[in-house]
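User: I'm writing a tutorial on reading structure tokens. Could you give me a worked example: one chain, its sequence, then its tokens, then a sentence or two explaining what the tokens reveal?
Assistant: Sure. Here is the example chain.
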Amino acid sequence: MSWLGLLLVGIALTDLVFSIRPRAWLPQCIAAVAVIGLGLVAGLTDALDLVALVVIVGVVLTWGRAVTHGFGRDRPGVPLLLLGCALTAAVLLSGLAGEADGPLQTWLDDVDLPPLAGTDADRALLLLGALGIQLSTGNVLVRLVLAVTGTLNPAKHGTSADPEVQLKGGRLLGPMERVFILSLGLAGQVTAASIVVAAKGLLRFPELSSRREQERIHQLTEYFLVGSFASWLIALAGVVVLST
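And here are its predicted structure tokens:
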């Protein structure tokens, strides 16, 4: 699953860098270089692995532009389709990937940190990618899903009519809850993860229960429910991938 891990790392790093420095091509170029470096450090130097690295870099470079154009031209389904096809191909072809080793495995053999102790390089790449996706990429995916379902109008992004402006904590709460749910799921604490889900609904309840401006409240409720379920599914997908 080393190819899948590298793909997730590249996409996650693209969105994370873009959230800090929103520049054209800069985030995906940085992510592409990181993917190549990480792949070489992981000892993925066979011919087939090098071809896969080139393809992954191509997907990473395309991802950033696809998201930008998806919102800018009201085509949010394009980046979702790109990501879906890339992930499906990475999973289906995972059996062809070489076994990650190299300096990364040497470092993992010497590290004493509990989460990494005894972990092989393949799983380390997958873990890094799955955790990274929960951050900025999770927010991007949620907004794309909201736009595809018509819950969010891209033309109103950043305006007073944008639900995200009215529910301001989502950008911070989303990554926090996804990482927390992923961590609890990997630890086998499914019940605790469900408590986190319930707690979020209680925390948002005052914003969604006003008797005034009912039309706006209905819009916010739909936004909250669709966005929350999409966010939770991203975290659960990470649990499933890492549990296989």
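What the tokens reveal: DSSP finds ten helices and no strands in the chain. The CA atoms of residues 48 and 96 lie 8 Å apart.
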